[in-house]
Amino acid sequence: MKAKKVLIVDDNSLNRKVFEHIIGQIYEFGTASDGREALEKIKTGKFDLVLMDIQMPVLDGINTLNVIKNEKIANIPVIAVSAFANEKDRDYFISTGFDDFISKPIKPRNLLETIDRHLRKNEVPIRIDNPNEIELDPKVVNTLLKFNNAENIRSVYEEFIEECINLLVETKSLIDSGNYPEIGEKIHIIKGNSGTLGALKIYNFCQNFEKSIKSSNFENTLEDYIYLKSIVQSFRLKIISSQLLNP
């Protein structure tokens, strides 16, 4: 996701450093210390999203947003950031034209998830599922059924899915903290177990995901995590509904 660029607008240098540390793990970024500087940065640089502090000298966040919209400087999400945290304040900021609101003190996971949600809002999904891709290898299932009854086999797949979900939770925490190298260990476990159980779609994707991590290619790590989470969830739903495993 390094191709995406976020403008951090805050008059407090310490706050900017906090944002830089969190955002810089996943996105490119620029900074501005007040609204006037932010407008110049938006005019001269290509940004995909703006994090806008509300209370600033020279030009505050709300008036800066008004200029952006009235002069049509950019058509990008602008997220308000303020120490005001109650719902009335949030509703007020949204009513003034902000796309979302984040309260201080910042929670890293909430910040990154909010940014990601808005950056993806108008995107066409870059991954197109292959309808002919087999999710579960019938040969593996038939082999397992030779030695176990269908109920036991189903419980094995349910345990596999539960472990995947737990490992993905750990993976997201590693992404949030910028600890990318350790992600490979989590994906390796999912890859090994999915291969053993014939969960081919999960296995094939984990192969590529793990390869990217091993080669220190972290640009698409968040995207890969989100996609892996979606195919694990799809696999889970089909196991539950007996579309992939019929007793």
Layout of SSEs?
Layout: E1 5-9, H1 13-23, E2 28-32, H2 35-44, E3 49-53, H3 61-70, E4 78-82, H4 87-95, E5 100-103, H5 108-120, H6 138-147, H7 150-177, H8 183-197, H9 200-214, H10 221-240
Helix pairs in contact: 2-3, 7-8, 7-10, 8-9, 9-10
Write a brief structural summary.
Helix content is 57%, strand content 10%. It is elongated, with a radius of gyration of 22 Å. It is built from ten helices and five strands, in the order E-H-E-H-E-H-E-H-E-H-H-H-H-H-H.
How is this structure best described in words?
With 247 residues, the protein is α/β, with parallel strands linked by helices. The protein has 2 domains: 5-120, Rossmann fold (3-Layer(aba) Sandwich), CATH 3.40.50; 138-240, Four Helix Bundle (Hemerythrin (Met), subunit A) (Up-down Bundle), CATH 1.20.120.160. It is built from 10 helices and 5 strands, in the order βαβαβαβαβαααααα. It has helices at 13-23, 35-44, 61-70, 87-95, 108-120, 138-147, 150-177, 183-197, 200-214, 221-240, and strands at residues 5-9, 28-32, 49-53, 78-82, 100-103. It has a 5-stranded parallel sheet with strand order 2-1-3-4-5, sandwiched between helices. β3 (49-53), α3 and β4 form a beta-alpha-beta unit. α2 (35-44) runs parallel beside α3, α7 (150-177) runs antiparallel to α10 (221-240) and α8 (183-197) packs antiparallel against α9 (200-214). The model has no long low-confidence stretch (mean pLDDT 88).
